[in-house]
Amino acid sequence: MASMVPYRSVFGIRPTVPASLFDAFDDMMDLTTPLSSKAFPIDVEDKGDGYEVKAYFTGVSKDDIDVELNEGRLSISVNVEDKEEDKDKNFLQKEFVSYSATRGVYLKDASSEGLSAKYADGILTVAVPKIVEKKNVTKISID
Fold it and tell me: Does the reported pTM lie above 0.70?
């Protein structure tokens, strides 16, 4: 009976030397990049009267995401935990692990009023308005 052995490649190149060497190399790469591979990409766009920040997630529910603005620093955090129902299954290979990651961006003129966030199709969109400077110009008459 055949067994399932996952094929692992380095940079998409099929190995031409014994597979154990490539497996060892892949294992070394897995150990050196776990944090960077779990970070999620973000885009920050200046819309003139505010900012639009987009964070891209895969396989994350909105309950796993936390968004916070603290003195101009917008922090987006995700905390994903392994599901309990998966623990009793007999996996031949399981690459999903629990992880958490945080990304932040400093927006010097961000206002804490009027913030909004929506999450759809794996994309979190946060609208951050800018502080509106009120210019109190008073005309002074000269006597």
Answer: no
